[in-house]
Write a structure and sequence with these properties.
This protein has 316 residues and is mainly alpha-helical. The protein is built from 9 helices and 2 strands. It is elongated and about 140 Å long.
Length: 316
C-alpha cells in the first residue's frame, strides 16, 4: 500500500528545531571550551571563540547544502560538500573532544582536591591519636611513680580534649567525603576497573564517543530539517502557475484530479451514472461539497455542460 507523504505538523517541527538547536549549541559550547582555553588574553579569546563559531555554523550549513546538491542530483557538488564537511567535522570533533576533556579534567581536579582534603583530615586525626598514645604512656608513668595526683589528672583532661577534637575532625571529614567523588568520576572508575584500562584511556574514550555522537546527532536533524524544507518547497512550486518562455504569462493552476474522478468520467460517458450531483454523491459516498468540485472539473474539462434549466448533461 502506498502512503502519500504529508508535511510534518507544528509539534513535530517544534521538537526537531529544539533538538537541532540544542545539539548545535552544545557542540559550539564544547568547541568554545577548547579554543578559549588556548589563550588567556581577551583579544585572543575573542578571536579563537569566533573561529570556533564559524567552524560550527559553517559545518552544519555545509551538511544542509550537501543535501540540496544530492536532491538536484549534482553528485560532483555533493562530493565536494561532503569532503569540506569532513574536514570541518574533524576539526569540530577534535575541538569537542578537547572541550569535554577540559571539563572532565576540571571535575577530576576537583575530585582530587577533595580527596586531598579528606586525607588531610585523616592525617590530623592520626596525629591526635599519636598524641593521645603519648599522654597515656605518660599517665602510666605517673601511676608507676605513684604521682597520680600531680600529673595524671592533667593527662586525662588533655586526652579528653583531644578525643573531642578527633570527633569534630571525623564529622568534618565525613561531610567532605560524602561529595568527594562526582558521578562522572564514579562512572569512569567503574569502567576502568571493568575493562582493565587506565583511567586516562577510559576518559578519552568517553569524551571521544560523546563528541562524535553529538556531532552526528546534530547532523542527522539538520538533514531532517533540510529534507522537510525541500519537500515543502516542492509542494509550493507544484501549486505555482507555469510561466512560458514565449508569452511570459502565468497559466492558471490545474488542480490534481483525484483517482475516483476518472471513474466518474467513464461511468458518465458509458451511461452507467446519471449526470446529477446527488447520483454522483451516492456513488462515491461523499458529501455534496466535494461533488461540487467534481462537477466544476467536469465542466472545465468539457465532459459535461449546463442546460438552460441549470441541470447537467454529458456532452456527446
Amino acid at each position: 500500500m502506498h502512503y502519500q507523504r504529508l508535511p510534518k505538523g507544528h509539534f513535530a517541527l517544534t521538537v526537531v528545531y529544539l533538538i537541532t538547536g540544542a545539539s548545535i549549541a552544545a557542540s559550539m559550547v564544547f568547541s568554545l571550551l577548547l579554543f578559549l582555553s588556548l589563550e588567556q588574553g581577551l583579544l585572543m579569546k575573542l578571536m579563537f571563540g569566533g573561529l570556533a563559531l564559524v567552524f560550527e555554523v559553517g559545518k552544519f550549513y555545509i551538511w544542509y547544502e550537501m543535501g540540496e546538491r544530492v536532491s538536484r542530483r549534482d553528485s560532483v557538488g555533493a562530493a565536494k560538500a561532503l569532503c569540506f564537511y569532513a574536514v570541518l567535522a574533524g576539526l569540530s570533533i577534535a575541538g569537542s573532544v578537547g572541550g569535554i576533556n577540559a571539563a572532565t579534567n576540571t571535575l577530576l581536579e576537583g575530585d582530587a582536591a577533595k580527596a586531598g582534603e579528606v586525607q588531610s583530615y585523616n592525617d590530623k586525626i592520626a596525629g591526635l591519636e599519636r598524641e593521645i598514645d603519648i599522654n597515656e604512656q605518660a599517665a602510666q608513668a605517673y601511676i608507676d611513680m605513684k604521682r597520680i595526683a600531680n600529673g595524671m589528672t592533667n593527662m586525662l583532661e588533655r586526652n579528653a580534649d583531644l578525643r573531642q577534637r578527633q570527633d569534630e575532625l571525623r564529622r568534618e571529614r565525613d561531610q567532605v567525603a560524602i561529595t568527594s567523588q562526582s558521578s562522572l568520576m564514579g562512572l569512569m572508575s567503574s569502567l576502568a576497573d571493568g575493562l582493565g584500562w587506565p583511567l586516562s584511556r577510559v576518559q578519552f574514550g568517553i569524551v571521544a564517543a560523546l563528541s562524535m555522537l553529538l556531532d552526528f546527532f546534530a547532523a542527522f536533524f539538520i538533514a531532517l530539517l533540510g529534507d522537510e524544507l525541500r519537500f515543502r518547497r516542492s509542494q509550493k512550486q507544484a501549486q505555482l502557475p507555469v510561466i512560458t518562455e514565449a508569452s511570459q504569462e502565468a497559466s492558471p493552476v490545474v488542480p490534481v484530479r483525484p483517482a475516483y474522478y476518472h471513474e466518474v468520467v467513464n461511468k458518465l460517458r458509458a451511461g452507467e451514472l446519471r449526470c446529477a450531483k446527488g447520483a454522483v454523491s451516492r456513488m462515491l459516498e461523499k458529501p455534496l461539497e466535494e461533488v461540487e468540485d467534481i462537477f466544476h472539473w467536469l465542466l472545465q474539462d468539457g465532459i459535461v455542460y449546463r442546460k438552460p434549466n441549470r441541470h447537467f448533461a454529458v456532452k456527446v
